[in-house]
């Protein structure tokens, strides 16, 4: 009887260890997804630097650190007769670590003088 209880107890411990390693893998994937999204958002913000400057038609920035690598790009369109300038910001990022995760952010909008209007944003992985 003691042997049966010992085998059942060891089986229970093994099930608990399997469940905890599954949860650890899930937590790593979640962390990588959040880090990639955050890096992509930061890259989009860096690319928007000086967006109201009429002399800056395009700006691109990239970099990497311990969290991952990112690249952001801002392009302006041709200013219309009513003074509205369309813009498009795209940013990509990849989280570093055991689990690799990529994220993309796209921001489209218009500039009129110093007023900025965002028409849409798109986040994807």
Characterize the structure shown.
There is one protein chain. The N and C termini lie far apart (54 Å). The protein is built from one helix and five strands, in the order αβββββ. The chain is of the alpha+beta class. β1 (58-64) and β2 form a beta hairpin. The protein has one domain (2-124): Pantoate--beta-alanine Ligase, Chain: A,domain 2 (2-Layer Sandwich). It is rod-shaped. The chain has one helix at 2-47, and strands spanning 58-64, 68-76, 84-95, 101-112, 115-124. It has a five-stranded antiparallel sheet with strand order 1-2-3-4-5. The longest helix has 46 residues, at 2-47.
Give a brief rundown of this model.
The chain is α+β, with helices and mostly antiparallel strands. Helices cover 37% and strands 40% of the residues.
Number of strands: 5
| CATH class assignment | Alpha Beta
| Overall average residue pLDDT | 91
Helix and strand sequence: HEEEEE
The stretches of 5 or more residues where confidence is low (pLDDT under 50) are none
Question: Widest sheet: strand order?
Answer: 1-2-3-4-5
Count the domains.
1
User: Radius of gyration, Cα only, in angstroms?
Assistant: 24 Å
Judging by the overall fold, what is the CATH architecture? 2-Layer Sandwich
Helix content, binned percent: 25-40%
Give me the number of helical elements: 1
- Strand pairing plus helix content: what structural class? alpha+beta
The largest sheet is:
5 strands, antiparallel
CATH topology: Pantoate--beta-alanine Ligase, Chain: A,domain 2
* Straight-line distance between termini: 54 Å
Shape: rod-shaped
Portion in beta strands: 35-45%
């Amino acid at each position: 009887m003691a042997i049966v209880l010992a085998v059942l107890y060891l089986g229970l411990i093994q099930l608990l260890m399997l469940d905890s390693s599954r949860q650890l893998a899930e937590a790593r994937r979640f962390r990588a997804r959040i880090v990639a999204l955050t890096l992509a958002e930061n890259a989009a913000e860096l690319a928007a630097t000086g967006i109201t400057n009429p002399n800056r038609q395009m700006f691109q920035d990239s970099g990497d650190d311990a969290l991952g690598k990112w690249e952001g790009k801002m392009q302006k369109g041709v200013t219309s007769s009513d003074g509205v300038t369309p813009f498009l910001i795209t940013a990509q990022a990849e989280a570093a670590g055991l689990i690799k995760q990529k994220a993309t952010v796209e921001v489209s909008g218009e500039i009129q003088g110093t007023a900025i209007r965002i028409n849409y944003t798109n986040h994807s992985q």
